[in-house]
Amino acid sequence: MPNPVAETKVDLRAFRRALGNFATGVTIITACGPNGEKVGVTANSFNSLSMDPPLILWSSMKEAKSNAIFESSPHFAVNILASEQMDLSNHFARQQVDKFAGVPWEAGIGGAPLFSGCSGRFQCETYDKLDGGDHWIFIGKVVAFDDFGRAPLCFHQGSYSMIFGHPETSKCAEADPLHAPSDGKVENHKFFLMMRAVQAYQARYQPKIQTLGLNVVEARALLIMTDLPALKAEQLITQLNVPIDEVDDALRGLSDRDFIRYNGSVYEMTEAGHAKARRCWDVAGAHAEEAFGKFSETQLESFTTVLQSLI
Q1: Digits of tens for pLDDT over the chain (311 positions)?
Q2: How far is CA 277 from CA 209, 222, 226, 289, in A?
């Protein structure tokens, strides 16, 4: 008899980072319970399942308090967020007494809240619930939907992001947009160029910062706390431009290594944290010198002026 294969232990933090390579949209799933109690949760686990019948799915941690409402309600709604709805995403990702206080919404089928300004919305009959390890998988049958066509809010590698057209999609039969004539709209569009520049800069920077034993969010948190030494987790959301759960994960990782400490109200950097932050600044500075060293002071001053004006 062959020996059973030993179960491989997975580094959960590394596993989560690896999963982050799969870019997703961002949704808020809502429902209304039998007693009128409303729930709403931010989720990027939404996906299509079947065209006939029209089925979709999403998943929720088993210990989530909102599950009781989703299990008892005959309907739920999926609000696919648009790119400008990052604040709404963060709002429904936090634990609060009443998430809907002060948030405009309208009642959909079964009372499930619907939000305006979304990319799309799906109203669903509860179809099934499946066991998925530490998650419940909720399946819904779509009975109504809205397609607004707005650019979606995306999530990739722990950060919010936006989509823009891949250059290959605008390639002509005999012309490559990366080597297109100077009058090409895509090649010379300022926003397109900025996004490409940021992606190229980050792609070369990320491996360098990982040599310090940090991921990008952790490193950015330390850099920010150099100038703002006492911050609440909620304040870091705006500074880091990432969801609250990614901020919490970074804060836990930094706390576990004694780089930061929670004093009961705010997070503060320790001596070890300041030392690590200085190394982060060294890496960031060296990378900036590598990227910008070939430009003149006049060019850099103009570049900085343009960026500050845009901000």
Answers
A1: 555 555 678 888 788 888 888 989 999 999 999 999 999 999 999 999 999 999 999 999 999 999 999 999 999 999 999 988 999 999 999 888 899 999 999 999 999 999 999 999 999 999 999 999 999 999 999 999 999 888 899 988 778 887 765 555 544 434 444 444 445 566 667 888 888 888 888 888 888 887 788 888 889 899 999 888 788 877 887 788 777 778 888 888 899 889 999 988 889 999 999 999 999 999 888 999 988 988 999 999 999 998 889 87
A2: 11, 5, 7, 18
Which of these, 127, 156, 177, lies nearest to 243 by C-alpha position? 156
Query: What are 223's two structure tokens?
Result: 């850099």
Angstrom distance (rounded) from CA 158 to CA 16: 9
Q: What is the largest CA-CA distance in the chain?
A: 75
- Contact at 8 Å (CB) between 151 and 195? no
Beta bridge mates, 113: 107
DSSP E strands, 46-134:
47-50, 55-61, 75-80, 106-107, 113-114, 120-132
Tokens 């006492």 found at: 230
**Distances in Å between the alpha carbon of 209 and those of 205, 215, 282?**
6, 7, 10
**Angle, CA of 160, 218 and 215, to the nearest 5°:** 80
- Dihedral of CA atoms 196, 173, 152, 249 in degrees, nearest 10, equals -40
Question: 47: which strand partners?
Answer: 57
Measured CA to CA, the distance from residue 85 to residue 81 in angstroms comes to 6
What 8-state DSSP symbol labels residue 176?
A: -
Q: Tokens at residue 306, please? A: 């343009």
Decide: pTM greater than 0.85.
no
Distance of CA 118 to the CA centre of its chain: 16
Q: State the amino acid at position 45 in one-letter form.
A: S
